[in-house]
Amino acid sequence: MSLGQQLAPHLPFLRRYARALTGSQAEGDRYVRAALEAIVAAPEEFPKSVDPRLGLYRMFQGIWSSTHPEEWAASADDGDQPEAIARARLARIAPMSRQALLLTAMEGFTTEDTAYLLESSEDEVEKLIDDALGEIEQQTRSRVLVIEDEPIIAMDLETIVRDQGHEVTGVAVTRDEAVALAMEDRPGLVLADIQLADDSSGIDAVKDILAEFNVPVIFITAFPERLLTGERPEPTFLITKPFQRSTVKAAISQALFFDQETVPAA
């Protein structure tokens, strides 16, 4: 099996990580393309002593660390723009901390694997994760609309959201109900399942909501590969079913981190 064939199944999930890390589909996918171009240009540099997925993320980390300077925030002089606000927030959280959190909580890497990816020690990775969680939880509190037609999953999401200090504005099970709830009580974040009751779509519900006002969205699906192709407009934040509580918490924190309208907690 060629290297390309070995890497292909892991590309959708690398896009998920890159989008969450950058807060942008376009930027995240650009970094993934750069990593792939580096592999094609110098295949002999691809790590041979680890499994292909770990090697792929290691190559991505090399591109990220070499092209994403920590002083990025200092370049923002238009403070009223979303990009400038995201950069200002980025400056308050060590990039390594955010990477450690996403690699473990969202991508499911072990502490040992994350230490390899970040060229750090396991103890340092654990400290980075604690630092990121502490800083992010202090930064953001919001009001969350849950769009989910499975009662048990909806209850789990409500519990996770409230445990993180956020308020749940409502739980919708259909497209029409989701739009009505959003118009009645504007949320600061939307958690949306893809497939809803009565065969309606969470994607369509979100499109209707975004036509009225901007709000960060996290999609939840059992088939993430379908929304991580890099071939069309796709979600920036995506959670895979079945999900872990830590994955949902990390995604919520990251989505709010890049939202210009989120108000820091007192």
Automatic annotation (TrEMBL):
The modification 4-aspartylphosphate is found at residue 193. Residues 143-256 form the Response regulatory domain. Gene3D superfamilies: 1.20.140.160, 3.40.50.2300. PROSITE patterns: RESPONSE_REGULATORY. It comes from the Bacteria. The keyword Lipid biosynthesis does not apply. It holds the Pfam family PhyR_sigma-like. This is Response regulator. It comes from Stakelama saccharophila.
